[in-house]
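New to this. Please check this protein:
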Amino acid sequence: MSASRPLALPALGVIVPFALLTRLDDPVAAYPLLLLLTGMATAAWLWGWRRAAYSDPRPREGGTASEEGAAGTYPSRAWIPVLGVSLLLRVLALSPQTPLSDDLYRYLWDGRVGNAGIHPFRHAPTSDELAFLRDGEVWPRINHPDIPTIYPPTAQLFFRLVDGISPSALGMRAALAIVDTLGVALLALLLRRCGRSPALALVHGWCPLAVLESSAGGHVDALGVTILIAGLLALRGTRAGPAVLGGLGLGLSGMVKPIAPFLAPVFLARGSGPRRIAVAGGGLAALLLVLPYAGVGERLFTGFQAYAAHWRFNDAVFSPLIAVGASYRAARLILAGMLVAVVIVTAWRSRDALAASGTIVLALLFLSPTVHPWYGIWLVPLLAFLPPALRPAGVALVALLPVSYAAAWLEGPSGVWEEPLWSRITVWGPVLLLAARGGLQANRARAPRGKSSRGS
């Protein structure tokens, strides 16, 4: 029997909802139908994941079956149909003309500004100095046009590349769909290097959230995630050479969105001295991308400072802290301290670097004041490596994040952006319950067992 046949029905179950999605011109305006189709695709995705993990639990000769299924259950070609379906899903998600958010118009603007020889960190889009670049397609759709860009150098280079090839919303979405599909292929290689079935790359490839946010939404996070996977793949090696590339991958990914730097302690806390130096050296080498922008001085951080100080959306902990009397600044400092503690403890205690990485990303999302749906795709490829106690909570978060598009849906007719409380409860309620349950189960598993009697 073909190795990919057990995945045929789940693949069809994911493809059909995305084929129906092509009939929607504006997915957010059709929010209830978007949630229905996403829910159907999510159920099929989880079914496919289960089949990839458990459909043939026979261990390899001389080995034992692992929790995720025996390595070698699927042959080396198993990633090919998984990758093919992943690409098809992203092609289908390109069909709706209206993107899920307007972030990509800022990407297009930044690429245009950069290719005009102007630092995008120096001037906000509303600046008179940039008036000659305005048009009727991109310019009117830029969000927060009074704030300079928040996107770091790796992202800026990508924006300039897309501007030079296909400076349109569809061009940006197509470019990120291709990049995200490459990430699926890299994840298959990473899984195989870990002794796992490459078919499990469907965890990322068929995940509805990843498809929506890379292809339908055109979010640059897909670029950062792909670079991160490449870095993690290089870090699976034991020599200094791959470790340099791994550190470089973490650094470049961190200059798309500042996620990967929180993972660096995991890899700096293990291995030989030369390997640690190689990881750190690779990360520092990535900072060379900052040099062309260094001339703007402190303006390099203006946009990010505005984001850090004022943005909040779909958070789990920040709003409760505000509700009990903490100031915005105090709440952010408390969350930052909690995150630092999680990073240190996880990096120190975890024996599995990939499990530790997934744990930290999940904690980062849980503690962040802002959790847009596309932030969740940073967790998606790490779901397969999460500790069993945390995996249900991580899967629930990824599955439920599309619910938070309720705010954009309600803004359409009213013109007022207001996040409904019910959407936040729907997203975070199950996540918190599953995390608590996993924690209790883990504590029971670690608890010392009572001594058995001699006569038993």
Q: What stands out?
A: Confidence is low (pLDDT under 50) at residues 56-74, 449-456. Residues 312-439 form one domain. The chain has 19 helices and no strands. The two ends are 48 Å apart (CA to CA).
